[in-house]
Amino acid sequence: MQERIPSRPGRSQGFHTDLLTRGQAIAILSSAALMLSIAMGLRQSLGLFQTPIVQDLGLQAADFAMAIAVQNLIWGFTQPFAGALVDRFGPRLVAITGALLYAAGLAITAAANNATMILMGSGVLVGIALSCTTSGIAANVAARVIRPQRRSLGFGIVSAAGSMGTFFLAPLGQAIIAAGGWRLALAVFFGLGLLMLPAAFVAGRADRLANFSASDKDLTLVAALGEARRHSGYVVMSLAFFVCGLQLVFLTTHLPSYLTLCGMDPMLGAEALAVIGLFNVLGSWGFGWLGDRYSKRTLLGLIYIVRSLTMAVYFLLPVSPASTLTFAAVMGLTWLGVIPLINGLVVEMFGIKFLSTLTGIAFLSHQVGSFLGAWGGGAIYDRLGSYDRALQAGVIVGLIAGFAQLLAHDRPTRRLAANNPQAERAALAR
Question: What's the confidence (pLDDT) of residue 215?
Answer without folding.
Answer: 60
